[in-house]
Structure to design on (195 residues):
């Protein structure tokens, strides 16, 4: 954390290895196909806490999109002398980092762009929608019991969020997300029907 703080403050890049958990409940460094441990060159911008974990909001140097890395899975970090890429060159950050908006659009800290999503929800979920996605959401087509919500969010994160609330929420757009959720639900039913 100290090295990341220093890198963010000085506008410098960092290099590190990154791990995933194995079934032995231990960290295992990510490797390339040849077995060599992967090194990541990162432009760090902000550390945030969400869902009880710390994440680094950053950009992987060879790409132009926002990325997120769990701080507890970062290993062997080194501060580099090279300047970090300006946020203005990263998709979705041309006006800097609007942290509340970013967190609302990346509820599970998946990387990738945000897209417009429309869904019909029961009105008793309005408070939960505001808690998860902030005040930038829009409500239309209100009936006695339901309302359509329009918001911007990361599609991968929204897929998991919608599955979590699947008994109550119906995603309407984009169609690609609707198709993925339908397929996920069919696969879930199949899993529970297996003997």
């Amino acid at each position: 954390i100290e090295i990341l703080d220093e890198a963010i403050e000085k506008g410098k890049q960092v290099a590190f290895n990154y791990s995933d958990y194995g079934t032995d409940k231990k960290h295992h460094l990510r490797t390339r196909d040849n077995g060599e441990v992967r090194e990541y060159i990162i432009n760090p911008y902000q550390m945030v806490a969400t869902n009880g974990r710390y994440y680094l909001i950053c950009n992987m140097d060879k790409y132009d999109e926002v990325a997120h890395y769990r701080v507890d899975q970062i290993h062997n970090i080194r501060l580099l002398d090279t300047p970090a890429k300006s946020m203005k060159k990263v998709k979705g950050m041309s006006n800097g980092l609007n942290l509340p908006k970013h967190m609302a659009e990346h509820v599970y800290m998946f990387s990738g762009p945000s897209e417009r999503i429309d869904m019909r929800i029961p009105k008793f979920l309005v408070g939960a929608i505001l808690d998860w996605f902030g005040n930038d959401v829009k409500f239309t087509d209100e009936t006695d019991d339901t309302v359509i919500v329009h918001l911007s969010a990361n599609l991968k994160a929204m897929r998991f969020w919608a599955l979590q609330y699947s008994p109550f929420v119906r995603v309407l757009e984009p169609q690609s997300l609707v198709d993925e959720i339908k397929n996920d639900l069919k696969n879930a039913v199949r899993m529970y029907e297996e003997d």
Q: What stands out?
A: DSSP finds five helices and ten strands in the chain. The first strand starts at residue 12 and ends at 21. The two ends are 47 Å apart (CA to CA).
